[in-house]
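Write out this protein's structure.
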Amino acid sequence: MDETTNPISSFANKVIGSLPVFGLIARIVNEEGGVGGDFIDFAEFRRRVGNKCSINDSRAFYEFRDRRGKTGDPLYVLLCCWLAAVGAGLLKSEEILEGVARLSLANDIEFEEQNFIAMMNEARKKRSKLGAPAPTIPMEFRAEKALEAIHVCCYGRDLIEEEDEKLLSTMLNAVFPTVGQQKVEIIVKEKAKRVADGTEDIKYTDPKQLSKEAVQLQMKDLEFLKQNSLNQ
């Protein structure tokens, strides 16, 4: 049986088992990410999304991958959603966009995951030292940020085709169900319109192809990030 005839089990197995977890303890407080001092790692985020996806949701992820290629892979889409769900208030928008732009070029999701975790941990430490409370960020805003990241990762600066709007709405609604299907559809449609008419003001630095030396250095950085994660 192929993944299109049994998309739920295939999708869940893929997103749950694709990446390792390095010493992170997830304390789950809701369906869509961490709140306050709590944190949900990417593996647990994928597990929860995969487990609650309907057949239609799962099919949308696969159809989007077929349309967008490697950068439309479910793991890439879910990483964008995870960053928005968990990283909002910890990561700057440009940090998220530059990271997913690098991902679309280098295809090193493990490095980007660990890099984002390191940045979020550092931001949490700074917040703790200042005694600052965690900001209250509506899920609607997180869904919008997820769409921004998906657009940069999967489209670059290209237009969002009309056929993709429904797929994007379905995927985002699967991850952020409390926002509501109707509101998610509006978010996607308005985003596509802004991109099409040139009024979208999303700023990030376009990544450059890494040299062999830079790749080797990145691998050393990954090992360092892994070790730091184990020591958290």
